[in-house]
Amino acid sequence: SAVARTAKLPVVDLSARSMQKLDPSFTCSEDTHTLILDRNNIMKLDHLERCPSLQQLSVANNRLVRMMGVSQLRELRVLNLPNNSIGYIEGLRDLSHLTWLNLSGNNIKVWKYLTML
Q1: How many domains does the chain have?
Q2: Could you give phi then psi for residue 116, rounded to 5 degrees?
Q3: 39: domain range?
Q4: In this predicted model, what pLDDT tens digit does every residue of 21-48 receive, in sequence order?
Q5: Please, which domain of life does this record's source organism belong to (predicted)?
Q6: Which of 38, 31, 75 lies closest to 56 in space, CA to CA?
């Protein structure tokens, strides 16, 4: 499939494809450091464990309500999640390399977990 072929690239851009979720068969190569899923209809971040080398993840303008899937991305440096429906900040505790976080345009109810960063 086109998605499987693009996953071998350093930057995989799957923006504006009307995706509701990341396909369970999706995997990233060790060379893939950036995954862009902007302008889709994604509600949940599943299957990110198949992209352990990701350094940048962008899921802007989707329908995310939770961000738990990011906790498995231990190499993540940039996390871009603006304009979703995220209510709670979660999954960031183990992201020791994270240097840039964008949660603007969400519905954050609890901010206390940001003090751990």
Answers
A1: 1
A2: -80, -15
A3: 1-117
A4: 998 888 888 899 999 999 999 999 999 9
A5: Eukaryota
A6: 75
